[in-house]
# Entry
Amino acid sequence: MSNFRDAQSQAHPSKTNTILLGVICVLILILVMQIWLLTTALNVSLEGVETLKWPAFIASTLLFLSGAALLRYLPNPIGQAKKATRAAKTRTLL
Amino acid sequence: MKAPDRPPKPAYEVDFPIERVEAEHVSRREFAKFLCLVSGGMAAGTGWVAVKDRFAPPFKLSGEIHICQTRDVPIGATHPFSLEGTKMPFILVRPSEDEWFAYEQKCTHLSCAVYYSPVSDRIECPCHKGFFDVRSGRVLQGPPPRPLHRLDVVVKGDAIFVRERSHA
# Structure
């Protein structure tokens, strides 16, 4: 079995760190855009203008979904280590 | 040599095996998840604004409503009134003999009650020094982001009526 991933992780030990910070930065950016969309929708609503509210809602929902999809790529080294330990224990019991 | 027996763990340590520092620690994973939760809240808030406007549109006046007689409002004075179906306060302003204006008495900044100042001939908000043009309701100065909501005033003989604006 290839040990490419292990070798890569040893060569760049701060890789997960960078990914995690990148994800957090993107999520903050998404949040800022959503705040802007909400403020715009409120202003438009209070001005009595009929347009823009639904497009703002759709855009905000899409941004939320993209942020939620991004959570999938959050590195989880502790969880993975626990999972590996559990798997090893199961193998031993079998 | 036999190791000395450890004293048994207190019951609370068995029941709550997580250290307080561990329990209070917020990892970056959790922070990222929290950001996503707030993001969901923002999307829901924007949706609420759109749905509220669609199913509970803002108050619109139908027809002409009698407010008072011309003699009830001296020149340079205002007359507060409210309309059936809404709790919104309004003011009728008479800056000169033949000029009549009606506005919602709520500042568009943070909803403070505005008043007409005959000295400066402007509508003023005392909270954050917002100033509105008495003849159009547009913002002259200060933090309000939008003009005041205006109603049309109709004078029929001595009677004053208001109605929804025919044009924005």
About this structure: Chain A touches chain B through 33 residues (CB under 8 Å). The radius of gyration of chain A is 21 Å. Residues 1 and 79 of chain A are 22 Å apart (CA to CA). The mean pLDDT of chain A is 87.
